[in-house]
Amino acid sequence: MESYDDELLLINCLKAFQEPVLLVRNNSVFIMSKITIPERSSSKTALLGSISQKKRQLEEESVEIVKKIKLEKSYDLDYWRKLRESERINLQAQRLERKISMIGMNLDDENEADIKQWESESKDADGIIVKEQALKAKVQQLEKQAKRIQAGSEDKKSAKVWMEFFMSSKLGMNIDIGVGRSDTLQKQFKEELKTKMGTRHESNPNYWWCPVVSDWFPQAAMKAGHLFPARSGDDGMTAIFGPSELDRLIDQPEKGKSELFRAVNGIWWSAEAEDRFERGEMCLVPDLQDNATPAEVQAWQNAATKDYKIRVVRPQAKKMLLAISPNDLKLWTSLDNKNLDFKGKDFRPRARYVYWAYLTTMLSLAYSEKGKDGGLHRQVAQAEVGKLYWGSAGSYMRKNMLPAFVENMGHEFGQIVRPHTNVEESEDAEASDTGFTHMNEAIIHRERKAKAQDLGEEEDDEDSDHDDDEN
Fold first, then answer.
1. Please, which residues have CB within 8 angstroms of residue 291's CB and are 6 or more apart in sequence?
2. Whole-angstrom Cα distance, residue 313 to residue 416?
3. How many Cβ atoms sit within 10 Å of the Cβ of residue 146?
4. Percent helix, strand, coil in the chain (nearest 5)?
5. Per residue in 381-391, pLDDT tens?
6. What is the DSSP code (8-state) at residue 466?
């Protein structure tokens, strides 16, 4: 073939293809191949800015709806419908967060291959998916509540729990009605945990033992963490688990019964350990073999001192792949199946609250699985199905709470709860979604907190507290 001037050929190619081409010399022959020009960064920035602005507008619209809801003695159908609309808008904003994340990776949120790539490669995907699924479930729960109000089938006791919860939640009305923690209660909670569960270093009393990693930490790096969340309130705890055995305030029986701010509802551990449990990357299960017999499970349940072990459920999470400490270069994932070491102390949290934390993690994994096509979380679910180490879930919370979990967790994860669920045995005639509603809200809070931490933002946490005291 006759040779051509490179510049002339380029001009002719541009005219013919109306786009740049790649010119390759091969034995004096030019082969013309089309190439794709990446989108200009300024255009991408403008698009991201536009979507981010729309997301902020939606979030502000949701807040305005909540502000306009009048606080009346009677929370009628209009109240619940407006609250549902507010959460529907929050769900739209959350879906825009997914779009923003995918555009940032030059991916199309409507392309199946791109979606799968984003799910497997984005460090933000899991949290975005879980929060999206939780918000979707919340909208459905509010729709059910509105229908119950419309049909006149909502009992007064259940309605009171619902109203207090949504009024006090930071994602709801966010009104201080005495639900959640107070300085007095939180101090009591922390001091009782330190006394009953904590172990101080003999030669350096400013250091405390973390039962998760089996190492000493300075007091400022320790936390008193709730298992059942403080934001769910005393009435929420009673509705889900039944009457509490302990006084709300130590040695003040006239203040009523509640274990929300008692040591039986918490663990004294390092902030690093709590962070990973809070993110749903690890959970606690009874210290039994996975194939434990019913007799072994019963013996564990009857034991005065119940032992637990760690189950790592998100081994690929970024924080799980870090070294435990400068003194221990093993990764956090190495803690899987490790016993919780209380350094000789016999005090333990109540099994019902440890089970609640376990089920919260399983629900979070179920949400992640619903938003993805197969993968690691399904393997976790399959590994948990058939495990008998918890015995009957009905012994930890009211049995009428369990069907809602089975319904919302999907087939794979629902099997974790299903063997323990028997509505006919329920002391309450009608199944209730109160427990699921509270747990779903806890997951939304968890994902919001995790995102704030990743962005380096401050996030108030009602369910744990740094202890900066030197005493």
1. none
2. 14
3. 20
4. 55, 10, 35
5. 566 755 667 86
6. B
**Distance from C-alpha of 463 to C-alpha of 359, rounded to nearest angstrom:** 17
Q: What is the DSSP letter of 25?
A: E
Q: What is the pLDDT of residues 106-150, one digit of tens each?
A: 999 999 999 989 988 888 888 899 999 999 998 988 888 888 777
**Dist CA 17 CA 19 (whole Å):** 5
DSSP state of 39: P
Rounded distance between C-alpha atoms, residue 334 and residue 326, angstroms = 15
Quick one: pLDDT band at residue 392, thresholds 50, 70, 90? low
Q: For the chain, what's the residue count? A: 471
Kindly list the distances between the CA atom of residue 72 and the CA atoms of 68, 78, 167, 179, in Å, as whole numbers in the listed order. Answer: 12, 11, 12, 18
Ramachandran angles phi, psi of 338, nearest 5°: -75, 140
CA atoms within 13 A on the CB side of 469: 9
Which residues, other chains included, contact 378 with Cβ-Cβ below 8 Å and sequence gap of 6+? Answer: 369, 412
User: How far apart are the C-alpha atoms of 201 and 184, rounded to whole Å?
Assistant: 27
Tokens matching residue 13? 């190619």
CA 293 to chain centre: 31
The string of pLDDT tens digits covering residues 156-183 is 555 555 555 555 454 444 444 444 457 8
Instruction: Determine which helix (DSSP H) or strand (DSSP E) holds 208, and give its type and residue range.
Output: strand 207-210
Let me know: does 446 contact 170? Beta carbons within 8 Å: no
114 three-state secondary structure: helix
Of 134, 164, 138, 135, whose CA–CA distance to 365 is shortest?
Answer: 134
Q: What is the DSSP letter of 246?
A: S
pLDDT average, residue stretch 398-411: 78
What are the residues facing 26 on neighbouring strands? 29
For residue 172, give the DSSP letter.
Answer: T
Run of H or E including 210: strand 207-210
CA dist 237 and 415 (Å) reads: 25
